[in-house]
Request: fold
Amino acid sequence: MEEYQWKKGSDGMLEETKNKAVSALKLPKDVILGEVLVSFLGRHSVVVENYRSIILYTDSMIKLQAKNCRINICGSRLMIEYYTNEEMKINGFIKSLEFE
Amino acid sequence: MLTWLKRRLFGYLLVELTGFSPERFFNMCSVHEIELWNLRECGHSCRFYMTVKGFRKIKPLVRKSKVRLRIMKKFGLPFFLHRNRKRKAYAAGLTIFFLLLYSLSLFVWDIEFEGNHMYTYDTLLKFCETEEIRYGMPKGKIDCDVLEESLRTEFPEITWVSARVSGTRLLVKIKENEVLSSIPVKDESPCNIVADKAGIITAMIVRQGVPKVRVGDTVEKGQVLVSGALEVIGDDEQVMNVHYLHADGDITAKTQYQMVRNFSPYKTIDAETGNMRNGYFIKVMKYSLLLLRPKPEGTTWKLTMEEEQLHLFQNFYLPVYIGRITGKEFISYERPYTEEEKKEIAETINDNIKINLLEKGVQIIENHVKIQDNESQCQVHMDFVTEEAIGKNQSIEVRMMQEEPEETINLDERN
Reply:
C-alpha cells in the first residue's frame, strides 16, 4: 500500500520505466504494479484481487475501485462471500464484468 | 475448517445494516481489518456475518458512516453456553460422563493372549494373577517388561513374549517353542521286561537282556519276558556273578479284551413346545442384573446366553457385559429304544472303544459285538482279539542289587 501511495505522487515517466523493467524481468505485474487480477470460476463466482475499495454494493451490481480503473460486476443475487484488504470473492448469478 | 472452528468457538453474529452508505462502512471495516462475510442485500438493508471481536471494535466506524446496526442472530459457543446457563444438571451430566470415561480408561478391562497353543488361557491368566496382574487393575501398575520376563521364566516352553497395554486392554503375544527343549535321557537303570497283559507271544525282538519266553508261548500278566539279570556261570555250573542290564526289546502278543457296557433302554426326549422367553443380562464389574420374566409353574426351560463385552472403538474395553438370554420351553418324556437305535448305540460304544484301543497302538484282529436285553438295562458285550506290544519295564528290585555284594563276600569267605 505504501509503495502504491508513493507511486501515485511520482512522475509518469517513472511508471513507464517500471512497467518496462517488470516486463523485461518477467515479474508478475499484479504483484509489482498492483494491477487488478480477476479470476472467474464458471459464472457463479469471481475473485477480484488488488482492488482498493467498494464504491457501490447492491443486489444486482457491485462497483469496485482498482488502481487505475473501476470494475462493474452486474448480475443478480450478488453476494460477497468474503473480502479482505486485497481480495474479494463474489458469488451469485454474474451477467457481465466491465471496466470503466 | 480452522476458521469455522474459530468462529464457532468465539461466537459470531448475523447483523442487519441500514443506512445511507453501507459501502463506506465496508471499506472502513476492511481498513481496520474487521472480518465480514456473506454480505447479502435484502431490500433496503444489508445483512452480513461478523465476529464478536469485530463487533466490539465497530462502534466508531458506525458513528462515522452513519449507519444503523441490528443484531439478528447470535451463533457459537459463548451464546450457546449463555442460553443454556440454567441447565446445570445437563452440564453436570456431561462432565460426569467424560470424567467416568476418563477414569474407566485408567484400568485394564480385558486381557488377551495370542499365540498360546500349549498353555491355556486360564493357565496364563492364573499365572498373571499371581503376578498381581488381574482384570480391573490400574493400567499404570502394569510393568510389561517384568511380566514378559516372569512369563518366560515360569513357562520354559515360551520363547518370546511381548506384552503391551493398548487402550484398556492388555495384549500379550506369545511364541512357544515348537521343538522339544530337552532330549530325553536314556534310561540305563537295570530292569526286566514283564508282561503287562496275558496273551500269546507272536513276535519278539530282544536288543538287550536274556529272553525267558519264546514265540508261541502263553504268558500271564506280570511274567518276566526278558530278564535284565545276566548270570555268569562258571565251569562248575554255578553262578559266579550276575550282571544287571537294562533289558530292551519289542514283544508283541495276541491279547483279548472283553468289555461290557450298560445303557438305559429308555430314551429321554426333550421336545420343544415352541414357547420362547427372551431376556437380558447386564454385568457391571461385580454387580449383575438379570432381566428375565419368571417362568410359569411346572415348566422346564433350556436357557442359552450370549455374552459380549462392551467396547468403544477397538481397544477401549469397558467393564460392562451384556448378555442376551434365549429360553426355550421343553417337555421331556421317555420311550423305549427301537432295535435299530439299540444297534446304533452299541455301534457307537464299540467304535469309541476301538478308537481308544487304536490310539494305544493296539491292532484289532477280531471284533464281536452282542446286545443283551434286560428289563431294566441293555448290555453291550464286546469281544476283541488284538495284537499289541505287551512289554513293560520293571526295575530290578534294590534288594536283589544288595544281594550281589553279599554273594561275592560269601564267595570270598569261602575262598
Notes: The first strand of chain A starts at residue 37 and ends at 41. Helices of chain A lie at 2-9, 12-25, 29-32.
